[in-house]
Amino acid sequence: MSSEPRVRPIVVRPGARYQCFGDGLCCTDIHILGPLSKREAKRVAQVDPSGLTYDDDGDEEQPVLRVATDGGCHFLLPDRRCGIHASHGPMQKPDFCRRFPVGLVATPQGGRVTTEHRCPCRTLGDRPLLDEDNVMSSIVDRQGRPKAERRVKRVALTKKTKVSFDEWRAVEADLLGRLASGEDARNVLGVRPFPELKKSDWATELDAIAAECLDGSSFGFAALWFVEHGRRRLDREHRLRLPVRPWAAAFDRALARDGEPRTDVDVFSDWIADEIWSLKWTDDRTFDVVCVELATRLSIARAVARTLRADHACRPDRAAAEAIMVVELVGESTYWSDIVAKIRV
Fold it and tell me: Which one of 48, 86, 206, 307 is at 20 to 30 Å from 336 when CA atoms are compared?
């Protein structure tokens, strides 16, 4: 069998569930709506040029979709459908809109379908099992061919140990099997959260995130939830100063789909399984670092979920789903990448 990464056959993680129900969270300022390529920006401008703006990422301005005053995308219709999709079809949308929360990773065993968990259509309420049919339209390019975001051939377990994909699969299969059996994700990761940082400490790093994110956006509020609960985990006397939850309505809609209630352990384990399965971390991290950073975010997520249950009477699976959204959002940010680069293992 060839060891070169490929996108066929399409491989779905057993037990993963997802279908887009238009809960609407992904089309808001919970994310930056971009960046767009020049070709994508041109397609958007053909629909409505006022829907484009520019974000300064520190190096150069990148085109992004404009956010309206209510926090929703400029093109988001009152019924939460995409105006570009409704008037011009899915292929007119930017790729990140059309694909989210689904991704594809080319591996020697085929194209792995991945899913993000900062979407209530993925984590809460009734959702069918994920399969090739219900994701194919999201993972193909404009010519109808599956398009991978990354290609993985070998996997670095530590700085000194890199293994073949077959060897990695044996390690991964054990971890995923334990998670699927109901074992607590903390035990499966097998490491303590909040590892030592090089030339820094966690309180300093968390406070820096808070200082950067006081912008009134939904992402900013989520980041403050992350910071406050991280500080609480480090200092049990820390007083929480929590902002509003502008994303709550999207989770209300997801809960209304009447899916069978799940335990919070199941919701957290499902997330950790997909974090491992996605192989996104192979871009810049070794697996030993991944384990401690996931253990840290899991610890913060559990703290957020406890607050949501205690102070907002959230059902355990809803509390866990919201908490995962918070820690996954921060985990995708450059703020978190900068912290992870300082982790000692």
Answer: 307
Global pTM? 0.94
3-state secondary structure the chain: CCCCCECCCEEECCCCECCCCCCCHHHECCCCCCCCCHHHHHHHHHHCHHHEEEEECCCCEEEEECECCCCEECCECCCCCEHHHHHHCHHHCCHHHHHCCEEEEEECCEEEEEECCCCHHHHCCCCCECCHHHHHHHHECCCCCECCCEECCEEECCCCCEEEHHHHHHHHHHHHHHHHCCCCHHHHHCCCCCCCECCCCHHHHHHHHHHHCCCCCHHHHHHHHHHHHHHHHHCCCCCCCCCCCCCHHHHHHHHCCCCCCCCHHHHHHHHHHHHHHHCHHHHCCCHHHHHHHHHHHHHHHHHHHHHHHHHHCCCHHHHHHHHHHHHHHHHCCHHHHHHHCCECC
Give the other-Cβ count within 10 Å of 15's Cβ. 15
State how far the Cα of 124 lies from the Cα of 321, in Å rounded to an integer: 7
What are the CA-CA distances from residue 6 to residues 1, 95, 103, 105, 132 (Å)?
A: 12, 20, 14, 8, 16
What average pLDDT score do residues 267-284 get?
A: 97
Q: Could you give the angle at the alpha carbon of 37 between the alpha carbons of 275 and 115, nearest 5°?
A: 20
How many degrees, rounded to 5, is the angle at CA 156 between CA 155 and CA 161?
Answer: 125
pLDDT tens per residue, range 23-61: 889 999 998 898 899 999 999 999 999 999 988 765 678
User: Is the per-residue pLDDT at 17 higher than 90?
Assistant: yes
Q: How much is the pLDDT for 165?
A: 97
pLDDT over threshold 90, residue 1: no
Q: What's the distance, CA 336 to chain centroid? A: 13
Distance CA 252, CA 266 (A): 20
Whole-number pLDDT of residue 117: 97
* Mean pLDDT of all residues in 93-108: 94
